[in-house]
Structure of Nitric oxide synthase oxygenase:
Amino acid sequence: MSHDTTTELPAGRAPARPAGRTPEHTPALPAGRAAEQAPALPAGRSPEHTPERAPDRPTGRHRQTCPVAHTSLDPHPAYPPRPSYPPRTPHAPAVDRAEARKFTEDFHRETGAAAALEDRWQEIARQIDTTGTYVHTGAELTWGARVAWRNSARCIGRLYWNSLVVRDRREVHGTDDIAAECFQHLRATWRGGRIRPTITVFAPDAPGRRGPRIWNEQLIRYAGYVHPDGTLAGDGRNTGITTYATELGWHGRGGRFDVLPLIVDSPHEGVRWYPLPSDAVREVAIGHPEIPEVADLGLRWHAVPAISNMRLEIGGISYGAAPFNGWYLETEIGARNLVDADRYNVLPLLAHLMGLDMSSERTLWRDRALVELNRAVLHSFDAAGATITDHHVESERFLRHLRREEDAGRVCPADWSWIVPPVSGGLTPVYHRYYDEADLRPAFVLDEDGARRARGETPGVPRLP
Ligand code: ARG
């Protein structure tokens, strides 16, 4: 969806807020990880899933204007930066030589460069001896990031792992420049709606020198506000980081879909926040192909899921800031984000609007509304020209990926509870088998520090008076 085709929901017609959620319902989902993805789910269902289009605009009374508030691109100098988040291990240890060796061997073997292995290893070993770490070549970094995706057991969308676009930004250090690169990442991945899986890699940790971090779990997330009466506005998953952003000086509008600022942490500059520029945030208004009133619910979602709090580990080197994105699988939005009771909880509203008999669970009103919501998500992304996949296609693709990996003589790790879609699981072929659960490297890792930052937890960070 391009900027000018983004649809806007009818102004001033926002329906009643989703039924109030109380703070104690605030979620504890595995922090999503795409290949990304990663949160205690109902019945063994994967909290998040990693990762195409049709006719006209979403049905409903839409206007073709950008629904995103235009905000300043600058950081907010009026607010002093906060001290950096104190990690449990302030200084990265020296690189583990065995891990570096294993990676270097795998890289040279798989990329057909076996003859160059020992020369390169001599160089790496020398760097580790003198500095405690080593510097990946551009080719090593690219291959390492792609294989980290390939190894992501929770991601159903790995068929295209080898085409991940890697933006090497290891030389970018300042928080202003890091934020600007994240915004540029979002613009670059968009391509008029033909989203391309992309990662931007910032400086790694090194002995005595920690690299930068991004606090947000994704580059684009909606704020969640708990009102004094205990009701929730916005995304209940993000209430912690919303509170933290507010303490930093950000002023949310208290709406249901306020995009949070990007919070960047560098050991030299501390923590600073940056509003996302409107041209970096593509959103899709949700309408239904046959039920025009669905548009009146005022639902929307951002088109690009870009995980930003997972570490990328390659050959013993840890990249703490390496945001990456694929494209959405419709169930992520239509069966989790808008549906979880502690998030947008829209099924009761939708079922009511559909006139379903909600007198008993046995009428399966939730299930019927759920299917229609997933149709609405697919329909709306298609109408906006924004890449999205569905759980039937993606399940077939995943099994194709699995066969390719086996043909290449490799293990393909997969976590059943994340791979099986949260809608119509048994209808998809991925449901009817078991998987290898190997923990392979390179990898995307969600460590406790990253998960806590994304929840807005600030142990050891002094509060402003
Ligand atoms: N489940 C997360 C969300 O709904 C996104 C995780 C990554 N997903 C992906 N398709 N790459 O925002």
Observations:
- DSSP finds eleven helices and 17 strands in the chain.
- Residues 32, 34, 36-37, 48, 50-51, 157, 218, 305, 307, 326, 328-329, 332, 337 surround arginine (CB under 6 Å).
- The chain has one domain: 3-12+29-95+132-454.
- The CA atoms of residues 333 and 377 lie 7 Å apart.
